[in-house]
Amino acid sequence: MRWIVFDYGEVISERTAALPELAEALGADQVEFETAYWAHREAYDRGMPDLDYWSTVAGKPLDETTSAQLAKIDGTGWMTTRESTLELIAEIKAAGHGLALLSNAPSAFGRMVELEAWIEPFTHLIFSGDLKIAKPDQEMWAHLLRRLGAQPQDCVFFDDRQVNIDGAVAAGIDGRLWVSAAEARAHLAAIGVL
User: What residue range is the signal peptide (predicted)?
Assistant: First the structure.
C-alpha cells in the first residue's frame, strides 16, 4: 500500500475568503489587517494560542470571546473545498491506498476540519498547531512517517508551497508541487498508484 499525503490550504480547499470579514470584525483597515494576519500566521500554525495570535494581529489585547469568534470566522473561510481534489481523493481510496492530511494549521482549525464529512477517506489528520512543529521542519516528516508506519519511499506528498516540497524530498518522500488535481492524477497514474 502507498500513502498519499495531502496539504490542505489551496490543495483541498480554496484560499480563504474571510479576510475582509475578519478585518471588519476588528474594525481594522483591510490592508493592514491582511499584512498582520500573514505576518504572524506561521507562529499560529506552530501552536501560538488563539488569543495570543488574534491579539497580535489586532494590535491590542482581545478577550476570549472575541478570539473564539475570529477563529471561527477564520476556519470557516478555509472550508470551501475543491470538488476536483475530493474526486481524486475518492479515486485513491477506491484504489486501496492510504490517505493522510498534513497541514500547517492552528489547532482550532484542526478541530473544525475533523467534523467535516469529506475527511472520511483519511486515516490520519495531522495539524502543525497540535504538534508545535510545522512543514518544512525535518521533525514533521519524521512524525508523519511514524504515524503512518511507513518508509519515505511509500509516500507521495502534494503541497502548493515549494519550500514544503523541498522538505519532503529531503526526507526521501516523493514530494510534488500542487498544480491541479489533473496533474496529480497523471503523476499517480505514472507511478502505478492509479
Answer: none
> Residue 174: phi, psi to the nearest 5?
-75, 90
Cα–Cα distance for residue pair 43/111, rounded to 1 Å:
18
Structural domains for the chain: 3-14+80-190 (3.40.50.1000), 19-77 (no CATH)
Q: Which three cell numbers stand for residue 55?
A: 491579539
Give the pairing of strands 98-103 and 3-6: parallel
DSSP states along 80-113 = -B-HHHHHHHHHHHHTT-EEEEEE---HHHHHHH
Residue by residue, pLDDT tens for the chain (194 residues) are 899 999 999 999 999 999 999 999 999 999 999 999 999 999 999 999 999 999 999 999 999 999 999 999 999 999 999 999 999 999 999 999 999 999 999 999 999 999 999 999 999 999 999 999 999 999 999 999 999 999 999 999 999 999 999 999 999 999 999 999 999 999 999 999 99
Model pTM above 0.85: yes
Residues 6+ apart with CB under 8 A from 121: 89, 90, 92, 93, 99
